[in-house]
Fold this protein.
Amino acid sequence: MKSRLLAAVLAAGVVLPLGMAKAAELEVTHWWTSGGEAAAVAELAKAFNATGNKWIDGAIAGAGGTARPIMVSRITGGDPMGATQFNHGRQAEELVEAGLMRDLTDVATRENWKDIIKPSSLLDSCTIDGKIYCAPVNIHSWQWLWLSNAAFEKAGVDVPKNWDEFVAAAPALEKAGIIPLAVGGQPWQSAGAFDVLMVAIAGKDVFNKVFGDKDAEVAAGPEIAKVFKAADDARKMAKGSNVQDWNQATNLVITGKAGGQIMGDWAQGEFQLAGQTAGKDYTCLPGLGVNEVISTGGDAFYFPVLEDEEKSKAQEVLASTLLSPATQVAFNLKKGSLPVRGDVDLAAANDCMKKGLDILAKGNVIQGTDQLLSADSQKQKEDLFSEFFANASMTPEDAQKRFADIIGSAD
């Protein structure tokens, strides 16, 4: 792929021009298309439009797995957008190496990003060879179990306080005609659920050995075998979900048709849009109520190199706007994520967001797998767990062997 990217650079012959800032239109591509996500994106657009420039929304439906190839194809094909969302980590690594993404070091230095962005791993994930190539906008953590209080009331059981109680309540939910666990059909959902189970059951150290150190022996060992047992329980509980998108699965929980969902904190935006209140209508269990650790991955914006002088200047304005305190608060309150700035006022945060902020303050964090694995290794992992959740005949033992092989060759 690198050779194709380099060829695209030579073919495009793009350079970064200098000039005076003027108002400009910038197309911004992203995959935030659910109701809660759209409300959050509107806050970014409003803030950028207030600078005199204009946000041209380039939403791509289907989540990152669908959107990223389209984004990459446009950039390498000589039709770059003004800015594009990727997750923190290595998804844009080859684009940067090919010279197709703009260096934001001057902006970051001028606005002291190294001092205000917390944790520092977020900016580290934007840094290649000492230069900063993206603007982080949020901290998204995967490690949450979202529960419908109404579903458990209908089933006649208490709302679980942890994963084991949730599994134990599954028969009562099924008897009441409720799907215990909602899981959508997109591969990243089942892979993400497994990662969450790993941290909760095997712990932070094992997670880091597997995904950080790429330790295939640990991946093949007894601690991960326990995780695959839990994943087997999860796929049995998820039978009958019959939805594709993550927000459709979240809606099953919101409407009481499912007992719970393992999903990142972005699910909060959907509960908020539905008018539901944390602690009253739904319950959130960070770390599945077992191990309160959250990942500090999330979303960042990258800026392709453009020939247009005015749009290049507008890119700097957008990067600055994304990190402004007011934008950080307005966006993250609606997105359900945590701000990347540690100096903003989040007094309006709901109970679940406050739990996340408390865990973050305590330093009980891990990096996300997007930061630890290449896009190719992530894809292999997603394919495995998509098959595992869809194919009941694949045993946990066989799946673990395949998983250990993926880790052994991961980069």
Q: What stands out?
A: Residues 325 and 344 are 6 Å apart (CA to CA). DSSP finds 21 helices and 13 strands in the chain. Residues 187-202 form the longest helix (16 residues). The chain has two domains: 2-140+298-341, 144-295+366-408.
